[in-house]
Amino acid sequence: MKKKIIGYLMTALVVISVHAQSLNIVSGPIVTHLTDKSAMLLVVVSDKANASDYIENQTIRSFKELDDYLFNLAVENKLDEFHYNKEEVELIDGYGTIKIRLSKSSKDVKQVAQTSSDVKIVVNSGFVYPMNRSSKKASNQIVQQMQGHQPSAVIWMGNTLYYPIESLDDYPKQYSTNINFRLEPSVSRLLQNSNHFAIWNDRDFAPENWDNSPPDKEAAAELFKTFWPTPESETPKKGIYKQSRIGDADFFFLDHLYFKEGATSKLGAHQLFWLKEKLYKSTANFKFIVSGTSFLNSDVSIAQLEEKEEVLAFIRNNKIPGVIFLSSALPHTELSVLQTDDFYPLHEFSCAALTSLGLPIDVQKNSLRVNKTVVKKANFGLITLKEESGQRFCWLESFDQNGGLLWTYPINLKSLEK
Domain check: are 131 and 190 in the same one? Predict the structure, then answer.
């Protein structure tokens, strides 16, 4: 296997030496996709004279260090093929991206649920970038608090980048916003020290107040995938939905925007089939469904999928164990639990907002809400999967920007089966 890896690295080096010999690594590598079969990473590069200003935030500063890192990552995850993006690096205002794919040559890969180790996963939404002068200190503080938990992964559940209305359909401006976000010192350090997975929500999709004039969704999807890359699907598909494995949990990241019709959020036929198939075949202990909509909220004004009831019925009818929902549909954090006589309790952890604008938040009635879990100030969530007294637990927690624990909620794996 070692020879194969080295062979692919040599190919990658040729590409870099031809197309990136004058470039500096200013952000990354950032792991944006990881399964038992493959991984995707992003590196941001620059040819600008002041690019060295960002190197002090980098743990990997040269392409030689990048190659060493990729070799170790491949060995650690039992991946044996390297694929660099062979296209020339296209620079916009002096910055460009390089996508890197790691994969397993064997097609017969069986996923096995691992249960021994503890896994920490940070979840958040509503970062509200770009930061203004008054919010920058608090935003940097909460990012540092997230990094302090040393998570295996960070899940960005949308509304991370707030594009100004003047950037509507302006690709270079939106591209620059993505670059500058990754160059923020606190964000840059966080991105390099964990795996990162993302979905989009309204503000990542288009600027606020765009006067009901839909943006070019193809261009919006392409921009999002430029900075949160995943492997190309074996069969052509639309949208940005995907699956990743973290420890003994599978995460299913849904796209509720690409197929939206008017005010109705939809998965679409292909994505719905994909979700059902992946849930049915998953061997993971925990199965997290991540969405910008809500599956468990009695308030009908909250964004919900057209196929919501069909998804819930599929989980019940096929007795899919270990399902937990993660949502960024609300402007605040709360936990909802649906209790029924014929199925195990279903949980939805809604998490927002990572940074606070100081605006009043109106909390609507939700009969499924767990008491004392509403958080209206800046906060982030932490999911911890761990063994306790011989049993597997999922702990859900909420923390404020100072690192203070706001609430905690344990879920026994055995309680998530029928």
Answer: yes
Domain that holds residue 352: 119-415
Under 8 Å between Cβ of 126 and 251: no
- For residues 261 and 370, membership in a common domain is answered with yes
Distance CA(154)–CA(143), nearest Å, equals 11
Q: Which of 103, 128, 162 is the last residue of a domain?
A: 103
**95 and 143 both lie in a single domain:** no
Burial of 114 (0-12, 13-18, 19+ CB in 10 A): middle
Q: What is the DSSP string of 97-157?
A: EEEEEEE-S-S--------SS-EEEEEE----BS--HHHHHHHHHHHHHHHHT--SEEEE-
In a domain, 161, yes or no: yes
Walking along the chain (418 residues) 10 residues at a time, the average pLDDT comes out as: 34 38 85 88 87 78 87 84 68 90 68 70 88 80 95 94 76 90 92 93 71 72 90 71 94 93 88 96 97 90 89 96 96 95 96 80 91 95 95 97 97 94
Residue matched to tokens 């909460």:
142
Question: What 3-state class would DSSP assign to 54?
Answer: helix
216 shares its domain with 184: yes
DSSP tag of 20: S
Q: Is there a contact between 214 and 168 (Cβ–Cβ < 8 Å)?
A: no
Q: What share of the chain is helix, strand, coil (3-state, %, to 5)?
A: 30, 30, 40
pTM of the model: 0.90
